[in-house]
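#struct-help
A.M.: can someone run this one for me? Single chain, 266 residues.
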Amino acid sequence: MHLTIEHSTTYEFEDTPDYGLQQVRLKPKDSPSQRVENWELSVTGGEFQAEFNDHYRNAVTLLSIDAHAESITVRCQGFVETTDTSGVLGKHRGLVPLWYFKQPTDLTRAGSELRGLTRGLRETAAEPIACLHELSRRVADTVVYQTGTTDIQTTAEDAVQRGHGVCQDHAHIFIGAARHLRFPARYVSGYLMATADQPQYAGHAWAEIYVESLGWVGFDVSNRVSPDARYVRVATGLDYRDAAPISGLRFGRGGEAMSVEICVQQ
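D.P.: on it. Structure tokens below:
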């Protein structure tokens, strides 16, 4: 499948910042399930400072915010060819060892709520795919998809207690529970072509689990499927903070307002 992606993010500042830096992770990765044919990134209200690949093999662009800028807009667009591999990415690649993906983070740490979701699943670990699909179903049944009830600071435990969340929360809960079952697990940020031809106002997130017989396998808890040709992988990490599309720091007074518009089409 050939997908066209357009993505625009704007930050508007109440007071012009004295200084600011943004790390941008928006360029998709080449992988067994996708090939980037073309990709362009532009910025208004800022300047390109550096480009590098981090230890997760994410393509990172470092931007500075112009002095006295009232806003900064980051735009990207490109073409990606995708292949349906039923969510299977295959063998582990990169500099980070597999054991690293078993460690908990502040956002994914398993407490009593996550441990409860795994009850009885250890006995089915001999069939890891069945075990993981059952875990995905439990997460989706326990935490109803609902926007506006959590934010980027919400932990997996908190989201389960609230009973509501978004794709980011589903991914964190699933990752934390899978690590509790001793599976290496990682967070994925990316794009999903929606069924309706309408703009989207946020990217998508899902999880990947390493299974000995298959390698890395994707699970989209929110949609109860494994990623197919409609999905585009962009960045990976231990949790959202490693794979956030845009993150950074800003010195100055006042708040900021962010707006996002994404269009993914075949």
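A.M.: thanks! The mean pLDDT is 93.
D.P.: also worth noting: The first helix runs from residue 112 to 117.
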